[in-house]
Amino acid sequence: MKAGYVALVGRPNVGKSTLLNHLIGQKISITSRRPQTTRHRIHGIKTTEAGQAVFVDTPGIHASQKRAMNRYLNQTAGSALLDVDLIVWIVDRPAWLPEDELVLERIKDSGIPVILAINKVDRIEDKATLLPFLESAQALHPFMAMIPISALKGGNLDVLERQIMKLLPEGEPIFAEDQLTDRSERFLAAEIIREKLLRTLGQEVPHALSVEIEQFKVEGNLTRIAALIWVERDGQKAIVIGHKGEVLKKVGERSRLDLERLLDGKVFLQLWVKVKENWSDDERALRSLGYAE
Ligand code: GDP
Ligand code: MG
Q: Which of 11, 28, 47, 66 has a CA positioned 20 to 30 A from the CA of residue 56?
């Protein structure tokens, strides 16, 4: 049997969390079009007849270290590279940004074997344009493999998975065979609510949001969840609530549907919005909201 840790790394927005969810077959890491959607390190566990791969989803590596939140994200992404057996480096088609360069440096420093996954190929009309990209990528680093994939559509993921298993060391399973993630339902619930906020609000309140679960009570087939949504300013609170509470209501409805799927039962959800000034640049506030390594 094979067993080991696989880090999914790449700049923000290339599709790391989408890939994790597709490989595991369940949503355990939230996704959106916004960068900085993933803030925590999340393990997704895949057990097959060949062995067990423990995928480590990470926040993207950012160029800016200015705010405390960005420093936290880079630290989380960087420390994920310390203890893994294999790296899957995800790039977004032949779209090369300076931030990809930053990731390449980290990968080289780590000395860990790397598979290059070229994602979002479903968006490439002329597949022939991939060839020159693959050739130039080959010169960057001695990759174990270069695999074009579509994380969203599931394209070529079987090939990627086989390669991963092949490259993992021999070993006994690290987690129970039926375990899909190392995170609690409470944590996943907070993340689902944050995802619906990111998707419903669009550009308006980008990264000033955090969600804290105040109550998580299981009563038979019903789970009672009360959550606090933290924002940084009064104006943001008004946006999150919306005209006559419409935005918050929509977020609540969308969250509840996902939560009921996750928990396989009925959910009673209550949401509140509160202001905590500048929490994303305040180390102590970050820690109290669970952003600590
Ligand atoms: P992350 O920041 O690297 O974790 O990226 P996400 O997984 O959150 O994905 C960012 C955006 O890219 C989301 O809107 C995804 O739906 C989209 N996306 C991810 N993979 C693919 C893919 O294979 N094809 C297409 N067309 N979109 C994708
Ligand atoms: Mg992500």
A: 66
From the CB of 154, is ligand 1 less than 6 Å away? no
Q: Locate the ligand 1 atom nearest the alpha carbon of residue 14 and give its number.
A: 3
Is any atom of ligand 1 closer than 6 Å to the C-beta of 157?
A: no
What sign does the dihedral 141-142-145-146 (CA atoms) show?
Answer: positive
pLDDT 10s digits, 172-194: 999 999 999 998 899 999 999 99
Q: Where are the alpha helices (DSSP H) in 168-245?
A: 185-201, 234-241
Contacts of 6 (CB under 8 A, 6+ apart): 53, 54, 55, 56, 84, 85, 86, 87, 88, 164, 168
pTM of the predicted protein model: 0.87
User: What digits encode the pLDDT tens for the residues 70-83?
Assistant: 887 878 777 777 78
Q: State CA 179 to chain mean position distance.
A: 18
For residue 148 and ligand 1, the question of a CB distance below 6 A is answered with no
Is residue 119 lining ligand 1, measured as CB closer than 6 Å? Answer: yes
Cα(146)–Cα(113) distance, integer angstroms: 12
- Ligand 1 mutation pick, 16, 18, 122, 123, max ligand atoms within 8 A of CB: 18
